[in-house]
């Protein structure tokens, strides 16, 4: 005799079906994080050699030949040009040869891991010339974020607060109209962004100026996630959580540039970095706080607005879908022997 009664079998099937979500989360997180982070390697890492003479040209050509696709080596006329390119985030490092002590110019706020990769390369270059390498930092970081990666963990906190709220708005708030849920979503995003600004500023001192801009981008980022998730719940139901994890954790954190910039990742995550909302937030905050908005802040803010606009469009579509479902559910069924409305119209030739 079977150990499972007829009553328990449906319950077991129900549990097993719901276990698919955490198991797929485990698999998806493992694939996403390991494929993005397990073997970082430079790919056309943009660096420069400073100097106008033949020695600088020869050094640049030698570096490029030895590195192949790992580096993208250019030459610049002077240190001022190198500083400008670094602060525009077009370079990771610039090597200034010197008869005594060569100097490597870096902007660690752009990416600590990319700057470290460049420093390893040019430390070997200086060592081959029996000279010590001096490193000059152009973007000093705040005392609360000495590695520059604290902003990435701020992104993580904002994301969890945002997509975690979607389950409540979509399930517990299902009895509310979509307009009310959308307004609640804006309110939740405001609270999440205020939490983020407090953590980034007075609590952990990740940023020591520009906090208003950090808060504004946090609200945009959170509102976009909540809008998209609230709308998707109408179509996906209980699969919304898995979808949100895929969109705003698996693909989002890995492509944000928080751990490795695109030049240290494979082409898939490098491509996502160009338009995903996490990258838009993180690079926008970096531009605003560390580079005075000169390195493309407007484009990153536009990315955040684009995701919010996509969320608004999905909310409108979801609201329309819910109205249709409600109308279909309340429409009286035709009585037996009475033709339906469509049949009536066909019969009279409408």
Strand order of the largest sheet: 2-1-3-4-5
Could you list the spans in which at least 5 consecutive residues all have pLDDT below 50?
A: 340-350
Taking the alpha carbons of the first and last residues, their distance comes to: 61 Å
**How many DSSP E strands?**
5
Whole-number mean pLDDT: 91
Task: Give the proportion of residues in helices.
Answer: 55-70%
Which structural class fits the helix and strand makeup?
alpha/beta
Beta-strand level of the residues, as a percent range?
5-15%
Radius of gyration: 27 Å
Q: What is the H-and-E element order?
A: HEHEHEEHEHHHHHHHHH
Shape label = elongated
Helix count, per DSSP?
A: 13
Largest sheet data: 5 strands, mixed
Query: What multimeric state do the chains show?
Result: single chain
What does this 3D model show about the protein?
This protein is of the alpha/beta class and 350 residues long. It is 63% helix and 7% strand. The protein has 13 helices and five strands. It has helices at residues 8-37, 54-67, 79-87, 112-128, 150-172, 178-203, 211-236, 240-250, 252-255, 267-273, 277-290, 297-330, 341-347; strands at 45-50, 71-76, 93-96, 103-106, 134-137. It has a five-stranded mixed sheet with strand order 2-1-3-4-5, with helices on both faces. Strand 3 and strand 4 (103-106) form a beta hairpin. The longest helix is centred in the C-terminal third of the chain and has 34 residues, at 297-330. It is elongated, with a radius of gyration of 27 Å. The protein starts with 7 loop residues before the first helix and ends with a helix. Mean pLDDT is 91; it is low at 340-350.
